[in-house]
């Protein structure tokens, strides 16, 4: 790697560092726990096929406990360390879910599983400010990008080799080569990772001055875009398009022309055109109302209407837990799942939390970024918005790798934004270096 100054970092010799150094053992424990979360889909798959497969469902919980110990240790040493501004909304949602849990003690197993599903990876997000050191932020962003690029390579490979897929993944009368899913096992969840990370990779390509990494970003961007298309997930396509559209309208309208041209070209590719044209077919909407997404969304409203404020209870509607215990099928809309399960109060708190995350990213990162830093800031914001839009069509936040990458990228962006307070110069001409791991 070329020597130089990392464009993601603030001035190296800041008189007032934002993060106090942890003791070496605690620092390493916290850092590598976050790295494991950054590589969640790959680590999870490796554990599930190895001699450690007995821990496939618990390794992330073990890491979460370790992170909690590190965070508590660091907070005791430096009580002035500040949590995310959105943490108060996350805390209220957690407290509300805990209250629902105690109201459902007649079904303790269902309630506990539902509670865990809703808050485990939210707790991971809340711990990030207390376990991540400033110097590790660029490396963690880079690691997250590399993981997504590897998934993109795998997606292209699956498409080339025509990996077999269940018939239920294709609409009646539709003919596609295959739908890629990589180690996720789900085209929708792989697409969620791609739609979030594609703008981030593009932002790093514009920011990073290192030639070898720029080549990696360029090749990786192509593979991730191809993989996103090969998932044939319309919700992800719509999410990314809307995310980029909003960024174009509010921050850089020059991107609007490029976005329109790109969408027009992609729309007339036969497989994509056929997939999107199905949405305009009366047959699609009739089938959707009888047994598809529209029916499932109506069911969520009907379930919630029995107890509008508090819903039917944790784990009893719309998701993996409800399906496993025989209460309901998937809602195919995470907001509908939250509405049916936790009622209007739960949906309000959940929505307020994510609005607060987006607002903090805008205030802490987008408004402070200078020069080429702006590309990464806007790319991250576009990816987060894309995933939130996509969640209207899939139960994205029930899948651990998707929930993890969303909270990790939003957290890393906000923590990076805090370091920009001491940034006084435009870094567009500086070359960076991703420091080697110790």
From TrEMBL:
It holds the Pfam family Wzy_C. The keyword Membrane applies. InterPro entries: O-antigen_ligase-rel_domated, WaaL-like. Residues 222-350 form the O-antigen ligase-related domain. One of its GO terms (molecular function) is ligase activity. It is found in: Membrane. The keyword Cell wall biogenesis/degradation does not apply. The chain crosses the membrane at residues 54-73, 85-103, 115-133, 140-160, 190-207, 238-269, 309-330, 342-362, 374-393, 399-417. This is O-antigen ligase. It is a multi-pass membrane protein. Keywords: Ligase, Membrane, Transmembrane, Transmembrane helix. Its main location: membrane.
């Amino acid at each position: 790697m070329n020597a130089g100054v990392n464009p993601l970092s603030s001035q190296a010799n800041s008189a007032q560092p934002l993060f106090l150094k942890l003791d070496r053992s605690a620092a390493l424990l916290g850092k590598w726990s976050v790295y494991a979360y950054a590589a969640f889909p790959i680590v999870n798959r490796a554990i599930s096929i190895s001699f450690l497969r007995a821990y496939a469902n618990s390794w992330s919980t073990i890491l979460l406990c370790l992170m909690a110990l590190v965070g508590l240790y660091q907070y005791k040493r430096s009580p002035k360390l500040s949590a995310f501004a959105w943490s108060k909304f996350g805390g209220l949602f957690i407290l509300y879910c805990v209250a629902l849990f105690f109201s459902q003690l007649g079904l303790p197993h269902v309630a506990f599983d539902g509670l865990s599903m809703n808050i485990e990876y939210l707790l991971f997000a809340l711990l990030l400010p207390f376990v991540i050191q400033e110097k590790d932020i660029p490396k963690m962003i880079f690691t997250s990008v590399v993981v997504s690029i590897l998934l993109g390579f795998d997606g292209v490979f699956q498409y080339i080799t025509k990996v077999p897929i269940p018939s239920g993944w294709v609409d009646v009368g539709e003919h596609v080569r295959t739908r890629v899913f990589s180690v996720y096992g789900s085209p929708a969840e792989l697409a969620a990772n791609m739609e979030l990370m594609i703008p981030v990779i593009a932002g790093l390509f514009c920011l990073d001055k290192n030639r070898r990494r720029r080549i990696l970003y360029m090749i990786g961007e192509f593979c991730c875009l191809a993989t996103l298309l090969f998932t044939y997930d319309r919700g992800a396509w719509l999410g990314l398009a809307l995310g980029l559209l909003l960024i174009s309208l509010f921050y850089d309208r020059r991107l609007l022309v490029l976005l329109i041209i790109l969408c027009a070209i992609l729309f007339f590719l036969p497989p994509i055109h056929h997939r999107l044209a199905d949405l305009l077919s009366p047959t699609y909407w009739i089938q959707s109302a009888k047994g598809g997404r529209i029916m499932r969304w109506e069911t969520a409203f009907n379930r919630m209407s029995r107890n509008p404020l508090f819903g039917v209870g944790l784990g009893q509607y719309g998701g993996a837990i409800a399906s496993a215990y025989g209460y309901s099928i998937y809602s195919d809309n995470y907001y509908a799942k939250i509405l049916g399960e936790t009622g209007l109060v739960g949906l309000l708190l959940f929505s307020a939390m994510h609005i607060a995350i987006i607002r903090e990213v805008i205030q802490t990162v987008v408004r402070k970024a200078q020069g080429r830093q702006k590309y990464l800031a806007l790319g991250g914001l576009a990816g987060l918005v894309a995933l939130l839009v996509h969640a209207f069509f899939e139960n994205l936040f029930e899948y651990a790798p998707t929930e993890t990458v969303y909270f990790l990228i939003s957290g890393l962006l906000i923590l990076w934004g805090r370091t920009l307070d001491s940034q006084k110069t435009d870094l567009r001409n500086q070359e960076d270096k991703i420091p080697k791991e110790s």
